[in-house]
Write a structure and sequence with these properties.
Blueprint (H helix, E strand, L loop, with lengths): L1 H7 L1 H20 L3 H20 L7 H12 L4
Helix pairs in contact: 1-2, 2-3
Organism: Paenibacillus thalictri
Protein name: DUF2273 domain-containing protein
Pfam families: DUF2273
Amino acid sequence: MWKQLWERRPGAVAGTAIGIFLGVIYLFFGFWDMLIFAFIAFLGYYFGAKTDRKEPLFPFEDTKDWLSDRWKMFR
């Protein structure tokens, strides 16, 4: 099962594993443990899934276009 999952979605698996690892480190040292742990694990999954879909981690072009459209009304 794990090998098949790794072959299909390596970015999501790696991202989730890294997120869980960082979350465990935070649980050992931190405050509001479960909330932050869940957030870190989710971020790991999110960025890993974007990697699997071959999407950029941050859509610079879309953001640039959106900001330039918003600022046109002030010119």
